[in-house]
Design brief:
This protein has about 375 residues and is of the alpha+beta class. It contains twelve helices and 18 strands. β15, α11 and β16 form a beta-alpha-beta unit. The longest helix is centred in the last third of the chain and has 14 residues. The protein is globular.
């Protein structure tokens, strides 16, 4: 799991921002938010334009860098108010009793300046792409001693490739993932699986109606998959029966089954139901492979009761998947759903503070956190 993340000089975050998932408050309630002494379910509040979307993009940068996610927005990479020419990303992963630290700096989306990997404090590799200095003396610790580092360096400086070389830089970690043969049970392999299971979802993506034709849509919804989708929607409070039919032109259509009548699903479904559909097939149906999810304004189309159902669903069904939800829904700011050390406020100046550190009071299970928030108890951290 991800134990710690730190970002600096990236988009809206000029000063260092740190998320320490090991900073558990020791509460004896809502324990489903914590697994193995690491926070696995987190809610982040913040006014508009505080950087909640940017934070998700920053955390998932490692997945973009290693080609597990495709990034579409590459604008305004560095903080506009900073004089520094580099953004810094730092990750600490914990698997069993071992830790992997991975740190890198970049001047743009794909132009790396430095890159360092350590396992349990021991340096595995260290690259300085500005000075062309590197050391890879401990690759045997990740069973990669046979990797051809020279070929990686040649690829970095291959002038025969088209385009701006400054924007073609790839990281050594990605090269290792693609070219090394290592023990599938090793800590390095666990790191790769975790990064490969990181996902980010935005409210705008959830609202998109999917009209998928032919075999792809058919495989998603045939047999047991259709039943599971129906069960999920019913569990979320959308009482319905579903049916699929193959149309004369070969397309597959999904319907609500109402007595003797079939109603096209995508024509009749509300924006909230469409969001649930997209969440189900992009995440929940593939949850066995997911390790980390960042849901940006996940409940933009949800009633407050549905928002609560959705958070509880992840707490109960996927305890080992780390999930960060961003929201404006103060109804979720409740000790019955979460807990003060898992509820965070992102301020306009880039500070991320858990509620138990945003007040001089000792927050307890009986406190009404939503009422305290609305009354201005935590306003100094907004």
């Amino acid at each position: 799991m991800l134990k710690l993340f730190r970002i600096e000089n990236y988009k809206s975050f000029r000063s260092p921002l740190t998320i320490d998932f090991s900073k558990v408050g020791g509460y004896q309630f809502s324990e489903s938010c914590v697994t193995d002494n690491l926070i696995t379910k987190m809610l982040i509040y913040g006014r508009n334009a505080t950087g909640k979307t940017n934070l998700g993009s920053a955390i998932c940068d490692i997945a973009y860098a290693t080609a597990y996610l495709v990034r579409y927005d590459d604008t305004a990479f560095l903080n506009a108010d900073s004089e520094s020419n580099a953004a810094s990303f730092s990750y600490c992963f914990q698997f069993n009793q071992s830790e992997i630290e991975y740190t890198y700096t970049k001047s743009s989306l794909s132009h790396y300046l430095t890159e360092v990997l350590r396992i349990n404090g021991q340096e595995i590799f260290n690259f300085d792409y500005v000075t062309d200095k590197y050391q890879c003396n401990n690759l045997e610790l990740i069973s990669s001693e046979t990797i051809q580092v020279d070929r990686f360096l040649e690829a970095l400086h291959d002038d025969s490739l088209e385009g701006d070389t400054a924007e073609r830089t790839i990281c050594f970690l990605r090269w290792l993932f693609a070219n090394s043969a290592y023990d599938n049970n090793s800590i390095f392999a666990q790191m790769r699986r975790f990064i490969g299971g990181m996902r980010l979802m935005s409210a705008s993506a959830l609202s998109q109606k999917r009209f998928i034709q032919s075999t792809t849509f058919s495989r998603e919804l045939e047999g047991e998959n259709l039943q599971k989708l129906e069960q999920f929607l019913n569990k979320m409070g959308v009482e319905c029966k579903l049916e699929i039919k193959k149309l004369p032109d070969g397309r597959i259509e999904l319907y609500f089954k109402k007595a003797k009548k079939l109603i096209p699903f995508f024509d009749a479904a509300s924006s909230g139901t469409i969001a649930l559909y997209n969440l189900y097939f992009r995440f929940i149906a593939r949850m066995q492979n997911l390790s980390f999810c960042y849901f940006d304004e996940f409940d933009a189309f949800f009633h407050y009761e549905l928002s609560e159902r959705f958070v509880r669903f992840f707490q109960q069904e996927f305890p080992n998947c780390q999930v960060i939800f961003t929201t404006h829904n103060t109804n979720l700011m409740s000790n019955d759903i979460m807990r003060p050390d898992c509820l965070f406020i992102l301020s306009s100046d880039g500070r991320l503070t858990p509620l138990n550190e945003a007040t001089a009071r000792e927050l307890r299970e009986g406190h009404n956190l939503e009422k305290m928030y609305i009354s201005g108890e935590f306003k100094n951290y907004e």
